[in-house]
Design goal:
CATH topology: outer membrane lipoprotein receptor (LolB), chain A
Radius of gyration: 21 Å
CATH class: Mainly Beta
Length: 260
């Protein structure tokens, strides 16, 4: 390799390394999901439109990712959360709910979440994600982003049946942190857009290196469980709710499950 090119690469990676040492920021993400659901009118007593509007609101949320080079804190912006409504119990995938703390350096995460009024503290290792880096690029705001894809298997229901799913991410090396929304991480730059399972998560605002030092605190409240233990508890409770709901002739109550 030409000496000048070697020096250029060395200066580039040294600069990125120095930037990353104290790099911190706040990224705002908005979520959307395409809904393809048929609701049985005999179950909901003519409330189809109201339920569909409520479901749409459930997936149009705003999340804040506070990060530095080693850690992050991901939480819904509660000031913009839709008001809760009674009458219908809707179970959605809780991958983005609660508080999610990630420690990239130690390859672990802690999630504080509430399920049916009980608080849990899920502690587990971050998954090694088999990203495939692509050459395709696009701009998101002022950032040049590169495409990456991930093939994985997810449970299609609560009976353990798994189906293949493709996750598409757009990340920018201009923000040199290996992090992103939800459980996703492991790319050479911050993830600004994600899409999977008819859902899109898009970064709408970024504040880098604010004047006030960012402090990222690991959550500590709740019953400590592993991810597999929590999943088993959630599945058991949902099945109990389904059983209790069978045979009821109450047009104001039914259970609808969406997601994992």
């Amino acid at each position: 390799m030409n000496t000048n090119i070697k020096i250029t690469f060395l200066l580039f990676f040294t600069t990125v390394s120095l930037i990353a040492q104290d790099f911190q920021g706040i990224a705002t993400y908005k979520t959307q999901r395409k809904l393809d659901i048929e609701i049985d009118s005999t179950q909901v007593g003519g409330m189809q439109d109201e339920i569909m509007a409520m479901l749409k609101k459930q997936f149009e949320k705003t999340y804040i990712l506070t990060f530095n080079k080693d850690e992050s804190f991901y939480k819904e912006d509660e000031s913009l959360a839709p008001p809760a409504k009674g009458g219908v119990m809707v179970f959605v995938s809780d991958s983005g709910s609660g508080i999610l703390y990630k420690n990239i350096k130690e390859q672990r995460y802690v999630k504080q979440t509430d399920f049916l009024g009980k608080e849990f503290l899920i502690q587990d290792s971050l998954n090694t994600l088999g990203w495939q880096l692509q050459s395709e690029t696009k701009n998101i705001g002022t950032y040049t982003c590169f495409k990456a894809t991930l093939e994985r298997e997810v449970e299609s229901d609560h009976e353990g049946i798994k189906e293949p799913e493709t996750v598409t991410a757009w990340y920018t090396p201009q923000i040199p942190v290996s992090n992103g929304p939800e459980e996703f991480q492991g790319l050479p730059g911050l993830i600004l857009e994600l899409s999977y399972d008819s859902q899109t998560i898009l970064c709408s605002k970024i504040l880098l290196n604010p004047e006030k030092q960012i402090k990222i605190k690991e959550p500590t409240n709740g019953d400590v469980v592993s991810q597999s233990e929590y999943d088993a508890i959630m599945i058991k409770k949902i099945k109990e709710m389904e059983f209790q709901n069978e045979g009821r002739n109450d047009e104001n109550s039914f259970i609808l499950k969406i997601g994992d």
